[in-house]
Amino acid sequence: MWYVGLDVHQRMSCICILDENGKVIKEQRVSDCWAVVIEELKKIKERFTICYEASCGYGYLHDQFKRIAQRVVVAHPGKLRLIFCSKRKNDRVDAKKLATLLFLDQVPAVYVPTPDQRGWRSMIEFRRRLIDKRTQVKNGLRSLLRGQGVMLPRGKKLWTVKGLAWLAELPLDTVIAIQRDLLLMQFEGLQPQIRRVEVELNRQAKAHLGICLLTTIPGVGVRTAEAVLAYIDDPRRFSRNNQIGAYFGLVPCEDTSVKHRLGHITCDGPATARKLLVEAAWQTVRRCPRTRALFERLQKGNPQRKKIAIVAVAHHLARVMLAMLRTGEAWRTEPQVQAA
Predict the structure, then answer these.
(1) In sequence order, what are the beta bridge partners of 4?
(2) Tens digit of each residue's pLDDT, the chain (340 residues)
(3) Helix, strand or coil for residue 239?
(4) Taking Cα atoms as reference points, which of 275, 269, 278 lies closest to residue 307?
(5) So where are the chain's domains?
(6) The CATH number of 2-104 is which of 3.30.420.40, 3.90.960.10, 3.30.1360.40, 3.90.25.10?
(7) What's the CA gap between 134 and 187, in Å, rounded?
(8) Residue 230, Cβ neighbours under 10 Å: how many?
(9) Alpha helices in 255-305 (DSSP H)
């Protein structure tokens, strides 16, 4: 078995091949696209396993490499930086390091979802970007008109058909009116785009029974359920429920070298799912007495601990969701009482 380390980029890649004894057989620089890199790897006569870092397009490369290699390992870039903190860093050296790690079986690997799962995730992320653009436009309109002393209605009333018509007919100076009209055009252009994406997401949601299961939690809607389910993918890949908090970046940073010290949450993993979990946690606190009691106990009556408490509730929701997906059991409003 030969071991191939690959430092891959869009237009230039470096290949390093080690034999079964860890000796360098070949080092090669390919100044071309990924298709040429794949053709070069096809020329290897021996059985081989390959390792490369996760980056943009890592899923496509994984699918292509699986056809020609005995094993494909995708390395976690952040953890690789912790292993090789070297002052001498270039593509050739990185390729050799990846091949050496692969030979030693010490690669910090990442989970590679299926093409359908990657497409589902990309659609969820695309919707989030559209929502962020729409929010930016809304804030821009409010800021523009507040600067002109215009009192705007609160909440969602301004974004109804009646509210938008009133907004478009406001008498304003020419310069301000032009900005208002362009922002309204952006808003009206984003609305059908968001609806089209949500229609596709709703179609995909019907094929996943786990979404119906997760939406039994008070305050958890379809968008939150689908984001959590899309990133969890296979619940069995987590050996313990506590691992899901670290995966979504909801656990605090820890420094116990001198004394036990906890910092801000790590914010690792998918930011979209983490954001939706926190939003769902607020709704669950309002709708579920048991979760509200947990929130109040964590807050300890201190208003400054509100954010800490809600993140802890979001962490609790993530663990509960993983347990529900494993067991197939719906949300229990009241805790189960064991018979004496």
Answers:
(1) 17, 50
(2) 999 999 999 889 999 999 999 999 999 999 988 999 999 999 999 999 999 999 889 999 999 999 999 999 999 988 887 566 666 678 888 999 999 999 999 999 999 999 999 999 999 999 999 999 999 999 999 999 999 999 888 888 999 999 999 999 999 999 999 999 999 999 999 999 999 999 999 999 998 999 999 999 999 999 999 999 999 999 999 999 889 999 999 999 887 766 777 888 999 899 999 999 999 999 999 999 999 999 999 999 999 999 999 999 999 999 999 999 999 999 987 655 555 4
(3) coil
(4) 278
(5) 2-104, 115-205, 214-327
(6) 3.30.420.40
(7) 6
(8) 27
(9) 271-287, 289-299
> Contact at 8 Å (CB) between 230 and 304?
no
Length of the chain, in residues: 340
One-letter amino acid of 67: R
In the block, which residue shows the tokens 């070069």?
A: 40
Contact 145, 195 (CB under 8 A): no
Report whether 194 contacts 202 (CB < 8 A).
Answer: no
Give the containing element (helix H, strand E) for 27: strand 24-30
- Structure-token pair, residue 210: 């786990």
